[in-house]
Amino acid sequence: MMYKNTVNIIGAGPASLVAAIVLRKHGLAVKVFEMSPDVGYRLSGDFQGVENWSSERDVTELLGEIGIRINFLWMPYYEGTVYAPEMKPVEVKSGRPIFYLVRRGSMPGTLDWGLKEQALSLGVEIIFNHRLDNLEGKAIVGTGPKGADAVAVGITFNTKMQDKAVVVLDDNIAPKGYAYLLVKQGYATMATVLYREFKKADDYFEKMLNFFKEKMDVDIKNRKKFGGYGNFFIRDKQTRNEKIYIGEAAGFQDCLWGFGMRYSMLSGYIAAKSFIEDSDYDVLWQRELRPMLETSLINRYLFERIGHTGYRYMIKCFGKGDPAKILKKHYNPSFLKNILLPLAKRRYESRVQDLSCSREDCTCVWCRCGTKKVCP
Question: Are 111 and 104 in contact (CB under 8 A)?
């Protein structure tokens, strides 16, 4: 039986807006509550990537199947340059898009703005500047990350550089993470993504900036600095007190490198489907998402142990083969990875927090002890 009442959604991120769009297309009334003045408010117009390697199905095809139009920047990238310490840069190229470039934020052309426009055109009611900490009855919760398992520090800027995608795997620049430079039509994003030593984020940012200036003679105009963070966890249930959790509010993130937008938008669709069909959301997401989430956790466990030697080997493999195919192989479950899963879960839980923070009322984004936010 189809759900008959208005579906309330808390948060207006991509997962929530996808859920709202799908629900409205099936005739359900939808009301979205967002505490910020607009969608994408905590983002800065930076470029990000939607990965296209975790499934045989192209993510563009997936979005079309779930009813999402491409009315935002959506640019396929088939190639790029990868750096690692003590080796020459490697040019990689794939037979299919490795990722799709999107822009994030509250301005026209961004993924967030495009999804908002689709939702509003269908009659979704979005209430901005409205914080909803408690709501009785069934609802979808897409309030974003609750803590920081990875922190990004970067800049957006104008440049004369040609379009390019560059990735750096170097613990001296991005400990256990990566740095990247994305350029499209004179606009660029440069950032370092850290999985360790969050308190030294500004130091690593300066090291990354010097690296790109030295290697590529980067010209930077109208520089704007930004920061962000991502959250990953796996729970057996994502339905609590009649609330369905989606996106990073449910921990749906790529634990290896943070390419979680595909998971996030898919979770919004799955949540909508559970309302439309009156089906069990936990059964649906466990079938569609859990294998990828668990594999990304195992990948994170392995990646943190390979070090610079491992980075060099991995990059050489990308240069000799098809990076999208290689990544797909590593992002899918296997017998060996199933054996490693319990160990990866134990190690991950003990390492995601920044142990250097000992202040009882800390408010830094990576500290889980100091937040005063009341989660629904």
Answer: yes
CATH of domain 150-230: 3.30.9.10
Q: DSSP states of 163-203 as a string?
A: SEEEEE--TTTSTTSEEEEEEETTEEEEEEEESS-GGGHHH
Instruction: Tell the CATH superfamily of the 7-73+105-146+231-290 domain.
Output: FAD/NAD(P)-binding domain (3.50.50.60)
For 98, 145, 332, the CA distances from 325, given in Å and listed in that order, are 9, 30, 11
pLDDT digits (tens, 9 = 90+) for 256-297: 999 999 999 999 999 999 999 999 999 999 999 999 999 999
Task: Give the residue extent of every domain in the chain.
Answer: 7-73+105-146+231-290, 150-230, 293-351
Q: What are phi and psi of 113, to 5 degrees?
A: -65, -45
Strands (E), the chain: 7-10, 30-33, 47-51, 75-77, 79-83, 90-93, 99-103, 125-127, 139-141, 150-158, 164-168, 178-184, 187-194, 221-230, 239-240, 243-245
Task: Say if CB 198 and CB 151 are below 8 A apart.
Answer: yes
Q: What is the pTM of this model?
A: 0.91
